[in-house]
Structures are given as C-alpha cells and as structure tokens.
Amino acid sequence: MGDKPIWEQIGSSFVQHYYQLFDTDRTQLGAIYIDASCLTWEGQQFQGKAAIVEKLSSLPFTKIAHSITAQDHQPTPDSCILSMVVGQLKADDDPIMGFHQSFILKNINEAWVCTNDMFRLALHNFG
After folding, report:
1. Residue pair 87/16 in contact by the 8 Å Cβ criterion
2. Is the confidence at residue 45, as pLDDT, over 60?
3. Residue in 10, 8, 25, 18 with CA at minimum distance from that of residue 117
4. Which pLDDT value is given to residue 12?
C-alpha cells in the first residue's frame, strides 16, 4: 500500500473500517460521523450523527455482509477525500443485491470523519 497516494490509503482504510463496523455493529458507526454530517439513504435525507445512527441502526435486517467489488478515491480541492464504492450485499436470507455508496471524508482534529454519505441499491426495476 506504500506506493499508493495518501488519499487512496486513507480512503481504502476508511472503507474497510466502515463496512466492518456496519456488518458487525451498526450502532458503533456514530464514531465516524459528526453533527454536520449528511446521509442520503435510498433518497431519504438525514442530518447529524444521531439521526444517521438511528437510521442505520433501524434498518430492517439482523444480519448483513458487504463484499466490495471496486472503490475509487480522489482528493478534493478543499483537502477532503471523495470515495466511491461499488459492491454487493446480502441481508438476512434476501438475495444478493448490488449497491453503490459515496463518501466525503474530512480531517477534523487529526481524525478522518465522514461528512457526506450517499447509498443506493443497484436495482434496475424502474417502474
């Protein structure tokens, strides 16, 4: 990993940490958000650490596993990192589904936090 740009190292580490927490204990995800953070989950908007954790903790499944297919990271002009993740997830006994998720990461007080998070299932049945 030493030959990758720093934003790729930070982005990749964040993605690994995020999905490990999500798959094991979603209530712990509050540590990566701040009160100004925004989440868009399947078109629904949530702002603030408490609202985001409440949403993620109340998702209607007990068991989930994410598999990352690809991830891309870019530095932004204001020293943040934009990360895009494509993968598959399996929740409870549901079929495997594709998903897309994007994050903006910002260094605040020597810690990288997620200021923006957007998630969509990759469903193609537009009705």
Report:
1. no
2. yes
3. 18
4. 97
How are beta strands 97-108 and 81-91 bridged, if at all?
A: antiparallel
Structure tokens at 60: 């209607």
Q: Please return the burial class of 17, using the count of CB atoms within 10 Å of its CB with bins 0-12, 13-18 and 19+.
A: middle
Q: Quick one: residue 31, left, alpha or beta (phi over 0 = left, psi -120 to 50 = alpha)?
A: alpha
Confidence class for position 123, pLDDT limits 50, 70, 90: confident
Residue percentage of the chain with pLDDT more than 70: 95
Helices (H), the chain: 6-24, 49-57
pLDDT at 125 exceeding the cut of 90: no
User: ∠107-112-116 over CA atoms, to 5°?
Assistant: 90
Q: How far from each other are the two terminal CA atoms of the chain, in whole angstroms?
A: 43
CA distances from 26 to 18, 29, 59, 123 (A): 9, 6, 10, 23
89 CB-contact burial (10 Å; exposed 0-12 / middle 13-18 / buried 19+): buried
Residue 127 has pLDDT above 60, yes or no: no
